[in-house]
Design a protein that fits this description.
Order of helices and strands of chain B: HHHHHEEEEEEEEEEEEEEE
Number of strands of chain B: 15
Number of helices of chain B: 5
Structural class of chain A: mainly alpha
Distance between the termini of chain B: 67 Å
Strand order of the largest sheet of chain B: 1-2-3-4
Strand content of chain B: 25-35%
Number of helices of chain A: 7
Protein name (chain A): E3 ubiquitin ligase complex SCF subunit sconC
Oligomer: heterodimer
Organism (chain A): Artomyces pyxidatus
CATH topology of chain A: Potassium Channel Kv1.1, Chain A
Chain lengths: 173, 292
């Protein structure tokens, strides 16, 4: 949980139905965004409910950089007002359905960035974005050998020689 | 540069791997200790791997359907059962005394006819715990049951198809409903043909007939629509004797042995034959099965 910094009500002006939120990134950039853009994020929605309960509005501190945050806001603005099935709390995981075309272009970034976006989306509880990123990463390793996967996923082979040949599933043994 | 995948939260990693085929999940589980334990500990990933290992596909998932742990459990019991097949206790079919088995039929169906010339026939569905099917059987009258052979069953169409040898080297084709024993309401063919070395096979709407007469020129292959009677294909590779359906689009035909080796050829039906219908199509809402 980020620490919640109290700010003056004047920094977050309410403007009719579409109120503004102040988000603060880890590199201490202040980003003002309309509340209903970010309503896709369960995390932000819960914060806003908290504001309503206490009738006090705060800046929301987020543990990732403004670069990533802007990317997430871009995603949320694009789908503003759209219903996405994956965001439904009861929806099944996306499974093997293809990534939406716009998301594919949106996620055409380097691996490091993709990882940061998925972590931010997970933190903000945006299920549709987590799903799209996950499928984008899955597509990178689909059909690859174990050695290629290590390279792509950035993991080291830390098995002892015996372990390496024991199966990771009962049914292959 | 790598992704630094281990820094992802476990539930996200699992969700990511769930979108991959079983083969890739296995490969991924072999990359490092952390990913191996992730794969081993996740029920849904184990389920995906086991499905892959036994070449199955997952069924539909809805609010009413089985949960993943239940599916995994059932799948494991299923594969374990295949590994240690055992004879079940013998079940006496007491009220079928006097019947002789004619043919084993697909999908747990067995058809029996009376050996003593009484014109009765039994079709019997064995129970299956796994598929939730209860055992049931029906007895129905077929004239000349001792002359019946070449049983074909199509469970999804409730169709039992067989031939009856008639005196004078001819035969009649029968199509019955498995549930009632009545003549099948949709299958149209019930004609008399020349019986010489005649064999048939059905697949979907289609009846594949072959008859092999002594001269190679006389062997015949004919593909007909069961429901309309339309012939959509005639002819056979030279010298071939027999043909069966492999699936909807492939017919396997068997020719004479060459140098002691079986001579098979596969006829591919592409696109799937779609004969025009001579009867109006049955509306989707019309019940196909007669009420039992």
């Amino acid at each position: 949980m980020p620490t919640i910094v109290s700010v003056d009500d004047s920094t977050v002006p309410g403007e009719g139905s579409s109120r503004l939120l102040l988000l603060v990134s880890s590199d201490n950039k202040h980003i003002v965004v309309e509340e209903d853009i970010m309503s896709r994020s369960r995390f932000i929605s819960k914060q806003v409910e908290g504001f309503e309960a206490t009738s006090q509005r705060h800046a929301i501190l987020l543990p990732f950089s403004s670069f990533v945050l802007n990317k997430v806001i871009e995603y949320c603005s694009h789908y503003r007002g759209y219903y996405l099935l994956e965001d439904d709390p009861d929806a099944a995981p996306p499974g093997r359905s293809p990534v939406r075309e716009w998301d594919q272009e949106f996620l055409d970034v380097d691996r490091n960035m993709l990882l940061r976006i998925i972590k931010a989306a997970h933190y903000l509880e945006i299920k549709s974005l987590v799903g799209s990123c996950a499928r984008a990463i899955a597509d990178m390793i689909r059909g690859k050998t174990t050695e290629e996967m290590r390279e792509i996923l950035g993991v080291e082979n830390d098995f002892t020689p015996e372990e390496e040949h024991s199966p990771s599933s009962k049914c292959t043994g | 540069m790598g992704l630094d995948f281990p820094s992802l939260p476990a539930d996200v990693s699992v969700m990511l791997l769930e979108t991959l085929p079983g083969r890739d999940i296995l490969a991924c589980g072999a990359t490092c200790r952390r990913l191996r334990s992730l794969v081993t500990d996740s029920v849904s990933l184990q389920y995906a791997i086991e499905l892959f290992a036994c070449g199955m596909l997952d069924g539909p998932r809805g609010p009413q359907s089985l949960s993943i742990p239940d599916r995994l459990d059932r799948l494991r019991r299923f594969t374990a059962a295949w590994e240690q097949l055992q004879w079940t206790n013998r079940v006496m079919l007491s009220h079928f005394v006097g019947f002789r088995p004619c043919y084993d039929l697909s999908g747990d169906m067995l058809a029996l006819t009376r050996a003593d010339g009484l014109d009765l026939m039994v079709s019997r569905q064995f129970s299956s715990e796994l598929r939730g099917i209860d055992e049931h059987h029906i007895v129905f009258a077929v004239p000349g049951s001792s002359r019946l052979s070449n049983f074909q069953v199509s469970l999804d169409q409730d169709l039992l198809f067989f031939k009856e040898l008639l005196p004078g080297n001819s035969l009649r084709l029968h199509s019955r409903s498995l549930l009632t024993g009545e003549t099948h309401p949709l299958a149209y063919i019930s004609d008399v043909t020349n019986a010489a070395a005649y064999i048939h096979d059905i697949c979907g709407d289609f009846l594949l007939e072959t008859s092999y007469l002594d001269g190679p020129a006389l062997s015949q292959l004919r593909l007909r629509n069961l429901k309309t009677g339309l012939v959509s294909k005639n002819g056979m590779p030279q010298d071939h004797k027999r043909a069966i359906f492999l699936d909807k689009h492939h017919i396997l035909s068997v020719g004479p042995h060459i140098w002691g080796l079986a001579n098979l050829s596969c006829l591919v039906l592409l696109p799937a034959p779609k004969p025009t219908r001579c009867r109006p199509r049955v509306a989707a809402s019309t019940p196909i099965l007669p009420t039992v």
